[in-house]
Design brief:
The protein is an alpha+beta fold. The chain has 3 helices and 5 strands. The chain is 40% helix and 28% strand. A 3-stranded antiparallel beta sheet has the order 3-4-5, covered by helices on one side. Strands 1-2 form a two-stranded parallel sheet. Helix 1 links the parallel strand 1 and strand 2.
Length: 134
């Protein structure tokens, strides 16, 4: 048996955990299978921060705005939110990364969105919304 640990990340729902256990059982019979550990991944707070940012910026499928939040330390830990906005032609681009308590993901999303707006995202987004349709 290998000395490596394979971490199987999964959400904490019953179905996801059941599937992760099944995958672990299937993989464990393979020759040289590593030791496996199931790790529950929390995504709801990260998703809330990302969605709040996109809602404040009125971002959607047609607007080049992206957000990625990562949680560290669980519910009492921190969230890091990275956000980028760009003009349609890519000549203007803004990037921002901020950290906040995982207990208030919406506040972090709002704060990062407002910071982006102050740094020029408002003008970029207005240009996109006023651009003629192709």
């Amino acid at each position: 048996m290998s000395s490596h640990i394979l971490r199987l990340g999964t959400r904490a729902s019953r179905l996801a955990l059941s599937q992760a256990h099944h995958v672990r059982e299937l993989l464990s019979v393979l020759p040289g299978a590593p030791r496996m550990e199931i790790v529950e991944i929390s995504t709801s707070r990260a998703t809330e921060a990302e969605r709040t940012l996109l809602n404040v910026l009125e971002g959607g499928c047609q607007v080049p705005v992206g957000a990625l939040a990562r949680e560290a330390g669980g519910a009492g830990g921190t969230l890091t939110l990275r956000a980028r906005g760009a003009s349609l032609d890519g000549t203007e681009s803004l990037f921002l990364e901020e950290e906040g308590p995982a207990t208030d993901p919406a506040e972090l999303g709002r704060r990062v969105a407002e910071h982006l707006l102050r740094e020029g995202a408002g003008a970029i987004l207005a240009g996109i919304r006023n651009a003629p349709a192709d």
